[in-house]
Amino acid sequence: IHYAIARKVDIISISARSNLDLPELKEAVKKAHEKGIIMVVAAGNDASRYFVYPAAYSRYYSNIIVVASSN
Q1: Which residues contact 28 (CB under 8 A, 6 or more apart)?
Q2: Whole-prediction pTM
């Protein structure tokens, strides 16, 4: 995320996810939000009841688009 911010991109796509709310990840997402960068992130496709990150940060930052799939 920091690399993309430094390169002044418009959109970041992240297909990875974590079950952990990592401060470093949250700070990077916040910085992308401050720069007006759209983030398209994975929701996780395992029907979990738990938050996955960075998708869960969409509660705080309007630049995040969360995507999922279904059969």
Answers
A1: 1, 2, 5
A2: 0.86
